[in-house]
Design brief:
The complex is a heterodimer of chains A (362) and B (259).
Chain A lengths: L6 H16 L19 H20 L5 H36 L12 H5 L1 H10 L9 H21 L1 H18 L4 E2 L4 E2 L4 H21 L6 H21 L24 H14 L2 H8 L1 H12 L1 H22 L3 H31 L1
Antiparallel strand pairs in A: 1-2
Helix pairs in contact in A: 1-2, 1-12, 1-13, 2-6, 2-8, 3-6, 3-13, 6-7, 6-8, 7-8, 9-10, 11-12, 12-14, 13-14
Chain B lengths: L5 E2 L5 H6 L31 E2 L4 H10 L1 E8 L10 H15 L4 E6 L7 H15 L3 E5 L2 H5 L4 H17 L3 E5 L11 H17 L3 E2 L1 H13 L7 H25 L5
The chains are: A mainly alpha (362), B alpha/beta (259).
């Protein structure tokens, strides 16, 4: 049976729509997404909520499953996400190739880091499968695969030594920031766009806060005072982002990554901004659900089937890039793209809910 | 320094050529060797295909440190300059190593394919802070042209970023939009292409026209018995652009001809 609309699914749906918009470069509506009004963006929200979802999964299985069964369940989830990644990159490469043939334009196969797949297929195909070669805008799932593969270890540490989890995660994070360590890419020389060594902290924080909230029954005692601190800071960071108040990164002290806004390394200012955002908006969902029930139901529907919706949304954003190029962009095209993209994502969620669910209900 | 940064060792070929010169210094005009000619497959590049300008910071780095750190950034990765980024780095090492024995070149690739100039300009500041390059090789314009970014927005973002780099004493070479026969009549695409020209000239930074290199390669292929198709030519163009980039650096730093 499908679960009713809830805050987690709602915000996950919000993140999915935002990611779709952000992944169509040049789209008019990008300027309205929250990445332009602060340091963190939808990717942080998505990963944080993935960690939150892990805690919910653990809570659901803790009474009925043994630890071994839970580990097996989590491992299968990582394999499922990996399979999804392989499927969507195969389709993305085919879409670029087909567009290049149909539009008679070889430039399109150079788009989004796909060039190596066509010019150096022997090594690039190995890289795609090994996740060391990632297409542009298709690089969140590789991070998610690593995080999901780490999930059994996170759960195990939380079970055996819960006080160790956050320090261990923060320690790995700090190590990566100090040493500037990241996963390398191959065959194209470079590094992962989302560094798993640092982004794991956001995932673990989601897991950690979910546990706190679940233990205290939906509201943390310090939530309200912290919210009052977070709100002005969020407004300040929005102004800072809009008016470019961030200091020049070349003047930052060492270790630099602690003091600059760096997405690949998920620098502390981004994590802090995300946490403030989460705390500030944590009480918003009930209000929205009361006054805008269709809106919250719709985004919750998307968030309920986040993997499928994310995969289809990623392909839809690539299709939108091709459409924008073909039709020369423009506001009307952009409006049509957003409507079509969100509709396709909603259709995916509906189909995933599907007749099977209704049959089970009846 | 990041673990994934690739350091390149010394090229001993240069030692063989220049005997017992042990320090990495630009060779004087009287003794400087010429680079081998650009392969015939690259065709004849029009004079406007390359615009030279001084690279004072790269020159200083080579004189003082015997080393040059190059940051590759832009809408397409350094792989866009060559199907194989490693080979590209090796090529630069070979080309410049001939002119300055003992020179150590390090290429840090932080290109994000499909990234627009406005986003790259923001990220560039972080990468400069982290990697402290002497020279930035910025492949710019193609992603913006394909994403239909207004030329005024593009030009403003590029100009601001180039000025920031110069203020921070980091040289930059701009590699403009890629060639595609189908884009010849595309007004938006051509406007972005011209914009890279303008910015390079206004800010006095070296520029290579990937478009004109692409045209020259295509022309050279016309006389072939079995001309390559568009996709094969794409690889050939990248190879030729990489050849010219090395030559531009040689020209700006060592005073040799760029072609």
């Amino acid at each position: 049976m499908t679960r009713p609309p809830n805050a987690i699914d709602f915000w996950r749906g919000w993140a999915l729509v935002t990611i779709f918009i952000n992944h169509v470069p040049g789209l008019y509506f990008i300027q309205f997404t929250h990445r332009n009004y602060g340091f963190s963006d939808a990717a942080e929200l998505f990963v944080f909520l993935a960690g939150w979802g892990l805690q919910i999964t653990v809570a659901k299985h803790v009474l009925s499953d043994t630890l071994g069964q839970l580990m097996w369940h989590l491992g299968r989830r990582a394999i499922k996400i990996y399979a999804a990644q392989i499927l969507i990159i195969s389709l993305a490469v085919a879409m670029l190739a087909a567009a290049s043939i149909l539009l008679d334009n070889p430039l399109l196969v150079t788009w989004n880091n796909a060039e190596a797949v066509f010019s150096d297929p022997v090594r690039a195909n190995v890289g795609l499968v090994a996740l060391t070669h990632q297409l542009g805008y298709f690089n969140i799932l590789p991070l998610y695969i690593v995080l999901t593969a780490l999930a059994p270890l996170i759960v195990l540490i939380d079970r055996l030594a819960p006080r160790l989890l956050l320090p261990a995660s923060a320690g790995l994070y700090a190590f990566a920031l100090v040493t500037e360590t990241n996963f390398p890419t191959w065959p194209v020389d470079g590094e992962w766009f989302f560094n798993p060594l640092t982004w794991q902290l956001t995932y673990v924080l989601g897991f950690f806060f979910a546990k706190l909230v679940m233990a205290t029954g939906d509201a943390l005692p310090w939530q309200t005072p912290v919210r009052w601190v977070a709100l002005p800071l969020l407004v300040l960071s929005a102004f800072g982002d809009v008016y470019g108040w961030m200091p020049d990164p070349t003047t930052a002290p060492s270790p630099i990554l602690f003091f600059i806004d760096h997405k690949t390394f998920e620098s502390p200012i981004r994590v802090t901004h995300l946490l403030m955002l989460v705390i500030a908006l944590s009480g918003v969902f009930p209000y929205l659900a009361r006054h805008l029930p269709r809106f919250t139901s719709f985004l919750s529907l998307l968030g309920r089937h986040s993997l499928n919706v994310f995969c289809v949304g990623s392909l839809a954003s690539l299709a939108a890039q091709i459409v924008r190029y073909t039709l020369d962009g423009g506001l009307l095209v952009d409006i049509a793209i957003v409507i079509a993209g969100v509709a396709i994502m909603a259709l995916t969620a509906h189909l995933t809910d599907g007749p099977g669910v209704k049959a089970r209900r009846s | 320094m990041r673990l994934c940064c690739l350091s390149v060792g010394l090229v001993m070929l240069a030692v063989a050529i220049f005997g017992d010169r042990s320090s990495a210094q630009p060779t004087s005009a009287g003794t400087s060797p010429q680079l081998p000619p650009v392969p015939a497959d690259c065709g004849a590049l029009a004079s406007s295909g390359i615009e030279l300008a001084p690279l004072p910071n790269a020159t200083r780095a080579i004189k003082e440190r015997k080393g040059l750190r190059l940051l590759a950034i832009g809408g397409t990765s350094v792989a866009g300059l060559d199907a194989d980024a490693m080979a590209d780095q090796d090529r630069l090492q070979q080309q410049l190593g001939r002119l300055a024995p003992g020179l150590r070149i390090e290429v840090v690739n932080r290109g994000v394919s499909g990234e627009l100039v406005a986003d790259a300009a923001e990220r560039l500041k972080n990468e400069v802070a982290l990697n402290e390059p002497d020279l930035v090789l910025w492949q710019v314009g193609t992603a913006d042209a394909l994403a239909r970014i207004p030329v005024s927005d593009f030009e403003a973002a590029l100009t601001e970023a180039v000025r920031w780099l110069k203020f921070r004493r980091v040289d930059v070479i701009l590699a403009g939009t890629k060639y595609s026969r189908q884009a010849a009549d595309d007004e938006d695409y051509q406007a972005i292409r011209q914009s890279v020209f303008r910015v390079a000239r206004q800010e006095n930074v070296p520029r290579i026209s990937q478009w004109q290199v692409g045209e020259a390669v295509e022309k050279a292929q016309e006389n072939e018995a079995l001309p390559a198709d568009e996709y094969e030519l794409s690889e050939e163009r990248s190879f030729c652009v990489a050849q010219y980039v090395g030559r531009m650096m040689a020209a700006s730093i060592f005073g040799l001809g760029a072609k």
